[in-house]
Amino acid sequence: FPVTIRINFQQIRDSLGSVLSLKGNHSRQGTEVLLRGHLQADANTWNLLVDSLELHASAQHWTARPGGQIIKRGDRWELLGLNLQSGVSGMNFQGVLSDLPSDQLRMTVRDFDLGQLLSAFGQPAGWLNGIISGDVTAGSVLQEPTFSGNLKMENLAIDSIPLGLMEWSSTFDPGANRLQLQGLLSSDNLELS
């Protein structure tokens, strides 16, 4: 994954400020990332204020609104208000990446098309359709991740057969190697759980 980094530095007292441009691409997968922001650093902390973020992957174009922050303190990465948008679909990242279970990262998805998700993982689209919205929370992301979430899939259809609304609640505990999954499928004349 070749990366090009351009940094313009400015030293102010004991703090280092700079404008950062980062561009990376993976030609075989057709993925490209372009990040621009203002980086401030001192002995213990790096603080990146995101000016723009673009991600091109699997014929999708995602952009971030200005104002998100990425802060690195020791072994902890904090994401604040990182919002990605692709058409009507959106993702928001808020929280901390670390090896501590108490540090949580929350991802909120809004109007995310299942076709987009399938193509992002290199799978053919069209056999599974619907719109996902909800929240996923992860803890101990850099060590042994735990996950929990509540997702809603509206207009769910498999091979063009409409199923209705699917609601999921799940928790994954890697220490116990256990996934707990609860679902409710409902349509006009059917309800399964």
3D structure, described in words:
- By secondary structure, the protein is mainly beta.
- It has one helix and 14 strands, in the order βββββββββαβββββ.
- Strands 1, 2, 3, 4, 5, 6, 7, 8, 9, 10, 11, 12, 13 and 14 form a 14-stranded antiparallel β-sheet that branches.
- A hairpin with a 3-residue loop joins strand 3 (31-41) and strand 4 (45-57).
Biggest sheet record: 14 strands, antiparallel
Radius of gyration: 20 Å
The helix-strand sequence is EEEEEEEEEHEEEEE
Tally of extended strands? 14
**Uncertain regions: pLDDT < 50 for 5+ in a row?**
none
What's the shape?
A: globular
Average pLDDT metric: 82
Helix count? 1
Give the helix level as a range of percent: under 10%
Secondary structure topology:
Blueprint: E1 3-12, E2 15-26, E3 31-41, E4 45-57, E5 60-64, E6 69-73, E7 76-86, E8 89-97, E9 104-113, H1 114-120, E10 128-139, E11 146-158, E12 161-173, E13 178-187, E14 190-192
Antiparallel strand pairs: 1-2, 2-3, 3-4, 4-5, 4-6, 5-7, 6-7, 7-8, 8-9, 9-10, 10-11, 11-12, 12-13, 13-14
Keywords for this entry:
1 helix; 14-stranded antiparallel β-sheet; single chain; 193 residues; mainly beta; 4% helix
Brief write-up:
The protein is built from one helix and 14 strands, in the order E-E-E-E-E-E-E-E-E-H-E-E-E-E-E. With 193 residues, it is mostly beta strands.
